[in-house]
Every structure is written in structure tokens, then in C-alpha cells.
Amino acid sequence: MRIDRNAMLALILLMSAGSVIAAPLQSVPASTLQQPAADEPGKGAQDLPEDVRGYILKHRMCMHFRKDAESGDADVRANATQLAKSVCPAADAATWKKLVRKYQGQDTIGGILLAERPPEIRTK
């Protein structure tokens, strides 16, 4: 049986990293580890409204399937094309614009949506 040397080194590093990382966290005050408020930078995805999270997920899946539809072998292209057709309509420019209008007073959400805008809006 042949053991990949790099895989073995990676496994050893991962096993030893747990103890190295755990030790410093024990001395950190609990207040430092708290989640930031929703309006602070560093807002987590779980703090976003459900419709924004849904749009971002569909947009990223759409971009992934479009990329796969343009490359790869015939089976991958066929599957990716079908998946893109089913996911992409929910992540189109009209949906994005609706969300931007809905959350226009909230800079954090607006900034996140700006980063996730559809490609047809980026080129204009």
C-alpha cells in the first residue's frame, strides 16, 4: 500500500492544528468572540433577510452552472445547461433590482447586493 506523503503531512498538520488553535481561544474574553451587530461591518449571511440570502444562493448557483455549461465534456455541459435554465430565472436582473429597491435605505444589504449583481447589469 502506497501512502501519499503530502496527504500524510496535511493530516498531521490538521491533527496538531486543533490543539494550537484551541489554546489561544481559551484565554480570549467572551465579549471578543461575540457576533457583530447586524448594522456593523462583518455582518454574517445568517443575519441577511431570507429573500436576499435566497437570491445570492440562486445567483451563485446560476453563475456556476453557466460556467460549467460553457466548458467541460458533453455530459457536464448538458446537465449544467439544464440546471442553469432552472435556476437562473430566479436570479435575473429584475429580481436583483427589486431587492435593491426594497433595501435601498440599508447600506450593508445594498452593498452586498451590489457585489452580487447579475452580469448583464455589470456590463452596462
Report on this structure.
It is a single chain. The chain has a domain at 44-122. It has helices spanning 5-26, 50-70, 74-87, 93-102, 107-115, 119-122. The longest helix is centred in the first third of the chain and has 22 residues, at 5-26. Helix 2 (50-70) packs antiparallel against helix 3. Residues 20-25 have low confidence and may be disordered. The protein is flat and about 55 Å long. Helix content is 65%, strand content 0%. With 124 residues, the protein is mainly α.
- Supply Rg: 21 Å
Structural class: mainly alpha
Helical stretch count?
6
Average pLDDT, to the nearest integer?
Answer: 76
N-to-C span: 57 Å
Oligomeric category: single chain
Keywords:
signal; 124 residues; flat; mainly alpha
Tell me the layout of helices and strands.
Blueprint lengths: L4 H22 L23 H21 L3 H14 L5 H10 L4 H9 L3 H4 L2
Helix pairs in contact: 2-3
Concise synopsis of the structure shown:
It contains six helices and no strands.
